[in-house]
Amino acid sequence: MSYDDVEIEDMQWSDELQAYTYPCPCGDLFQITKEELKLGEEIARCPSCSLYITVIYNAEDFADDKSKSNLEPEKRQAVAVA
Amino acid sequence: MAVEVNQSSKETIIEQREKEEEQLWSWGAGTDGQLGTARLQDEHLPQLLNLPSLSSAGPVSILACGGAHVVALTYGGKVLTWGRGNSGQLGHGEMVNTLLAPKPVMSLESYFITQVSAGWSHSGFVSDEGCAFTCGDGSFGQLGHGDYRSHCSPVKVSFFVNKHVEQIACGMRHSLVLLKDNSGNQLYGFGSGKRGQLGVPMDRIKSINTPQFTCGFDDVKIISIGANGDHSAALSAEGQLYIWGRGFGATSDFLIPQHIPSPLLSKAVLGWNHALILSDDGEVYMLGGSHHGVLSNPEKMNPSKHLSGNPFGKLKTRINLINYIASIRVDDHVYTLKLPQHKYNLFCFGETGAAVLERVPGLDGMKVVQIAAGAEHSAIITEDGVIKTWGWGEHGQLGLGSTCDQNIPQTVSLGHDIEHNDATFRVYCGSGFTYAIRTLCPPP
């Protein structure tokens, strides 16, 4: 049973993990890669527990690399060290 | 009562007493160092902690537990943090993956901090002068600094510079701030607002990076606030609960604060899919419990069974509840429903369905004095100092020695030699972990 349904726009791109992520209630992150999305996978799993979420996205957006530029995260994390 | 003691021996006495009087245990998810055990692993049973840096800072007044980090506040106004720090949420001036032991937040040393909160990956602090500080992940504007940057040291929220902040509450991707001066706007929200968790009169704004006035409290004095997941809550001086943000169970999202009819409340805490409510006579109620604690049981994860056969469909009128008989007029028909008194006290209705505020089972005859909620688990303390937990248990967050889920509160043992007399207990929950503090009562 899917823990939640999450739209791809609510997931965050992680450069480190090379995956779209969403918080898992265990403290880790649900993860799904662009390759998985390209293959039509819609389940993002948490590496630390049994839970998973269903990712809602438009398959065409990930069908080929042409549209890749649209999918790059808008908000790249900027970090200020005070 | 004043006793003259010279300074050095006084400090020694205080240090000694603090060591003896306060003990901490932790259990649950621990792979980010959030348990303070100096190990990066889950613990299924309570672990008695040895935290010299924390005990030397003085007794703990608040332990705020977030996604995978902990913010401890001492009665002396000092702040220490540990656990996951990869978004800057620990406030030590650098991104750290994990910090295994409590470390003082040096940039807050010159302030006397009176309240702290830990969100999924950000933290909030309030000083005695009414300033609010935030650090950590700012991708959704949840730090309130007018941008989407992250900060690894606490930064004063300039919006509140001429206001007196009393409390801050950090959720998954949003924050709430309560002002002390209640004349006019008292409550603000910032960060992600997609589920209505900011309570601003705009329809599902994606995110806002400067504090926005939360509507709906013109004639209500708010005394405390809470945030977790995509939920927000406020408790009024009259002991009434208001909830907004993501819906519970089958209810739709509450885009503006919704009054939840209830008995007089003393506390409300939020998980990611449930709310736990403590009445002033020591009874515990749960909202959204159909999801809670049954994550590994697909049969029970369907929307609340209480809703099957709900004849009302879309319901926008108030239900009348008299002597446990609920009645409602839909078109020309009046529907009545006799509620089993021992189990359900209250109903509340959203726009498209009903959520049941249900009395937590298995607590008959027990007076509960404290409640806490993790993402998908709950913990309480009874007046006898007994800790009970229930909900999702996959990471050992229930502290029962297993990874099983529990639907009914179960007693947690801190060890056979732990005396419950002359001590008070407190419990705190992070997303997938739990802390307990035992404090010896001061001699009469």
UniProtKB/TrEMBL annotation, chain A:
Catalyzed reactions per annotation: 2 [3Fe-4S](0)-[protein] + 2 Fe(2+)-[Dph3] + NADH = 2 [4Fe-4S](1+)-[protein] + 2 [Dph3] + NAD(+) + H(+); [3Fe-4S](1+)-[protein] + Fe(2+)-[Dph3] = [3Fe-4S](0)-[protein] + Fe(3+)-[Dph3]
GO biological-process terms attached to the record: protein histidyl modification to diphthamide
Signal peptide: none
Keywords: Iron, Metal-binding
Biological pathway: Protein modification; peptidyl-diphthamide biosynthesis
PROSITE patterns per the UniProt record, alphabetical: DPH_MB
Keyword Iron found: yes
GO molecular function annotation: metal ion binding
Occurrences of domain DPH-type MB (ranges): 2-58
Family matches, as InterPro entries: DPH3/4-like, DPH_MB_dom, DPH_MB_sf
Name of a matching Pfam family: Zn_ribbon_CSL
Family, as annotated: Belongs to the DPH3 family.
Annotated protein name in UniProt: Diphthamide biosynthesis protein 3
Origin species: Theobroma cacao (Cacao)
UniProtKB/TrEMBL annotation, chain B:
Chain ranges of the RCC1-like domain: 23-435
Pfam families per the UniProt record, alphabetical: WD40_RLD
Keywords, ordered alphabetically: Repeat
Keyword DNA-binding: no
RCC repeats: from-to residues: 22-76, 77-129, 130-181, 185-238, 385-440
GO cellular component: cytoplasm
Keyword Lyase: no
The protein's name in its UniProt record: Regulator of chromosome condensation family protein isoform 1
Species of provenance: Theobroma cacao (Cacao)
